[in-house]
Design brief:
Largest sheet: 6 strands, parallel
Strand order of the largest sheet: 2-9-1-10-11-12
Number of helices: 23
Oligomer: single chain
Distance between the termini: 29 Å
Number of strands: 28
Structural class: alpha/beta
Helix content: 25-40%
Shape: globular
């Protein structure tokens, strides 16, 4: 297989919309028929996810993988930093915890992680067509540039073209973009293929004078003005605007405690979609009020956040509501807080040995250890009034919890999970509302308590809702960006343009395109080696071109042309075998000389499938196989 092309999105600041733009590009490229993978070498976020093989990665790349139609893979985010204080983070490398480190210690370590980053990237690059790379913060943070592994430093390592995005919604976008470009080194500026203005509200025509001046000053094209899109895509971290919601406007009121170290708040996005549920994030007893349900979310620092609850008065307010019968639900760290005690004998959670009392609403005791539990799970809720809801989610936590009460649910293997006592429940399962079944059960319970009739219209599952939102996002960004220029920056303009030409023209282009690809395959043999092979032609000012990609397309066109003209004679040796064998033979020899074994196998496989579907007799394949086996044996 050919090495993937790539495009990198960098921003003028955190929150410029890099993650959302990368999500859109993943969706757009997938819609255009490419195999796409997201990549971010180093992510700092509290929202994380557990992969199918039990490894931990940042949720932003999970969302981007979902947009691309790919299974989330830890290679997409080889380094994850989960802040535990203002000056330290838990460092996770290739999905495994490397340790808790202060910022200074990590800065000394991170350049040694470059082999891990490149191994992950190179492995992905052999499996997909396009990699969409997300930067972090700004490439012009000059105090961090010397050891950069996530912006221009990474772009250099993987030879990535760059889009630079600025956020006009915050103001000063022209200064953002111009200043960032000016602070870069000449070689770094040369990597930028275009500028993108993001989150624009209004008529883009009024920006034209500013865009013209920006292009003149930076000598870079503006490839698009992306509007402020009203889409509901999962947010990466505590910059999320959804956390600012603190007003109930629907019949049912769900109050989520906005903990200082809140994590995985995306668990509650499905609740926001219900027509009867308002979801609020609260930070004080006054904001909490008298909701219909209280939710304690996950946290990266359970003990510190528990003490914060105690100091600000929210603990007493939640206990009072629970005593009065208000349903209370804790998830992960919130579940641990609901218990009787939380012990940290080695200081792995809080930094010092201590045992603190919990809210005392569930008969559980938690002991924190170094070990982290990471699994994907399916479960069925057994808690009264919510029983029968099927959940799919994942666990990601430190600490082992001893339960003396009734379990909240049963996992697929029959084991008990979580705890419920009267109107208080807790679970370690993230993603518990994604199937929609628990949401419906919860709404029915709350409606019965308020004598409200539940909505009769069925809800979309979170999976269906996500897909709708990904398509809306992709449509908006596709309309705003110059996709021709974007594909050209990646060296894929030929394939992309070809996919949009009227197919009748291909009959005339088939043989000339094959001839051109053979010339290019020959020319590439005279180019300098790159990573031990000769596969790329360098086009000054345009990037690189891989002739084997054109050859694949040309072979398909020629084979389709032959089959279309001779479909009733494909069973004969002269028509159904000879021309195909000649074309495949010449192309395969040239590709093997590069050498490009995986690409050769792929193009031979494609050719064989087209021949068989087109009507080439099965006996010729049998004879070819027997001849090949005899040749190998000799």
């Amino acid at each position: 297989m050919s090495r993937a092309k790539c495009i990198m999105v960098q921003g003028t600041m955190s929150g410029a919309g890099k993650s959302l733009l990368c999500t859109a590009l993943c969706r757009i490229f997938a819609q255009d028929g490419y195999r796409v993978a997201p990549f971010k070498s180093q992510n700092m976020a509290l929202n994380s996810f557990v992969t199918r093989d039990g490894l931990e990665m940042g949720r932003a790349q999970v969302v981007q993988a979902q947009a691309a139609g790919m299974e989330p893979d830890v290679r997409m985010n080889p380094i994850l930093l989960k802040p535990s204080s203002d000056v330290g983070s838990q460092v996770i490398v290739n999905g495994e915890v490397r340790g808790q480190m202060p910022a200074a210690a990590y800065f000394k370590l991170k350049k040694s992680l470059i082999p891990d980053i490149l191994a992950a990237y190179d492995s992905l690059a052999e499996e997909v067509d396009i990699i969409v790379i997300e930067g972090a913060g700004s490439p012009a943070e000059i105090n961090l540039k010397a050891d950069d592994i996530v912006n221009m430093g990474l772009a250099k390592l993987v030879d990535a073209p760059v889009l630079l995005a600025g956020d006009i919604d915050r103001g000063g976008v022209f200064a953002q973009l111009y200043g960032t470009v000016e602070l870069l080194e000449p070689a770094e500026r040369a990597r930028i293929k275009g500028l993108v203005i993001n989150k624009f509200r209004g008529d883009a025509a009024i920006l034209k004078p500013g865009l013209t001046m920006l292009e003149e000053k930076t000598h870079l094209p503006v490839l698009g003005v992306v509007p402020y899109l009203r889409v509901d895509i999962e947010d990466e971290d505590s910059l999320s605007s959804r956390l600012e919601s603190n007003t109930a406007v629907k019949p049912l009121d769900a109050a989520i405690l906005r903990l200082p170290h809140i994590s995985n708040f995306t668990d509650f996005m499905p609740l926001e979609q219900h027509p009867l549920l308002s979801v609020r994030y609260v930070q004080s007893p006054r904001q909490l009020g008298a909701p219909d349900v209280v939710i304690l979310p996950g946290t990266k620092n359970t003990i510190d956040d528990l003490l914060w609850l105690r100091q600000c008065g929210l603990e007493a307010a939640v206990q009072k509501l629970a005593t009065s019968g208000t349903p209370v639900l804790g998830v992960c760290g919130g579940y641990q807080m609901l218990g009787e005690t939380l012990a940290d004998p080695e200081g792995t959670e809080s930094g010092r040995s201590q045992t603190v009392r919990g809210l005392g609403l569930l008969p559980i005791q938690t002991v924190f250890t170094d070990a982290k539990h990471r699994t994907q799970d399916t479960a069925t809720v057994t808690a009264p009034q919510l029983a029968g809801a099927v959940l799919t989610g994942y666990q990601i936590h430190t600490g082992r919890t001893a339960v003396q009460g009734v379990p909240f649910c049963r996992l697929a293997d029959g084991s008990a999970e979580g705890c419920v006592k009267d109107n208080v429940a807790g679970t370690y399962l993230h993603g518990l509302f994604d199937t929609g079944e628990l949401t419906e059960k919860l709404v029915q319970l709350l409606c019965s308590r308020k004598d409200i009739s539940p909505a009769s219209a069925p809800l979309l599952s979170m999976q269906e809702y996500r897909q709708q939102q990904f398509d809306l996002l992709a449509d908006g960004v596709r309309r705003a960006l110059d996709m021709n220029a974007l594909y050209a920056a990646m060296g894929l303009v030929a394939m992309w343009t070809a996919s949009r030409v009227d197919y009748h023209i291909y009959h005339k282009l088939a043989w000339p395109l094959l001839a051109l690809s053979l010339v290019l395959l020959t020319a590439v043999l005279f180019m300098p080696e790159y990573n031990g092979c000769k596969r790329w032609l360098v086009l000054p000012g345009l990037g690189t071109l891989q002739p084997s990609e054109i050859a694949k397309f040309a072979v398909v066109l020629v084979f389709a042309h032959i089959i279309a003209l001779n479909h009733d004679r494909m069973g004969s040796f002269a028509v159904g075998v000879v021309p195909f064998a000649l074309v495949l033979g010449v192309v395969a020899v040239l590709m093997l000389l590069e050498p490009h074994l995986s690409g050769t196998v792929l193009i031979l496989s494609i050719g064989a499938v087209l021949m068989f579907v087109g009507g080439t007799g099965l006996k010729w394949f049998v004879l070819a196989g027997a001849g090949g086996a005899a040749a190998i044996g000799a």
